[in-house]
Amino acid sequence: MTLTERTSGGGPPAAPASGDGRPGRRRGATAWLGLAGLGTLLAVMEIVPRVGLVSPKYFPPTSRVAQALAGEVTDQAFWVALGDTLKGWALGLLIATVAGVVLGVLIAAVPVLREYTASTIEFLRPIPSVALIPLAVLLFGTDIRSTLLLVVYASFWQVLVQVLYGVQDVDPVADETARSYGLSALARVRYVLWPTALPYVMTGVRLAAAVALVLAITAELVIGAPGLGARIAVAQTSNAVPDMYALVTVTGLLGVLVNLGARAVERRTLAWHQSVRGEVAV
Known about the structure:
This protein is mainly α. The chain is built from 12 helices and no strands. The protein has a single domain (65-277), classed as MetI-like (MetI-like fold, Orthogonal Bundle). The radius of gyration is 23 Å and the shape is globular. The chain crosses the membrane at residues 29-48, 89-111, 207-232, 244-262.
């Protein structure tokens, strides 16, 4: 048990879910409804171009997109492009997370730094990452470093702001108690600050993961850096419309997987926290 939990009284753990299986059935029903909605969307996308409401030349039916997707997954170049996208996404997210956590804890824990950097953060944070594309091209050309520049810049703020809020949410009574027990600064960070800030950190990482994927593909699409975005641009310019839609579908599936993975990691990391335990409470 952390010092924060001791000073706040802790309290009994949340009651486990009842054995009637209602939460499980509810989640199962939600999943089936989601699949039904997806099936309806695919059916509409198949019917609309075939009945002539839109031109199949610009909006091919689902079956043609599926054929193009099958052709893509058998092409080695597709997997190389997918690997390039995931590499840029993962490296950028890692750099942004480490920098955001370290600088966020440092800035929030030192009042002078917090006051000194407040206006700078508020000035830089709203700048769109895509506005840095000319700078990225000027510095790195179409190298993966251009992608990393945009990904890190966009993701960094998601993590930093959440860490700042998390550190400011530390219970002052718990902090004073830790000081009275003679805990060192490092021990206070470990046992008082970190348990309080961790839910905020995980929220920031989850948001940053989605933003990083968007910026990675955007950089590839606009700059021409290696990856799925560049492959989409090639398909569009060569008039391979079904292939273009197939690749866009892959990016959408990647976004879903990234979101599900981030939520799973968040639940596992915060299994001890009330926000997660409350999901299974009666």
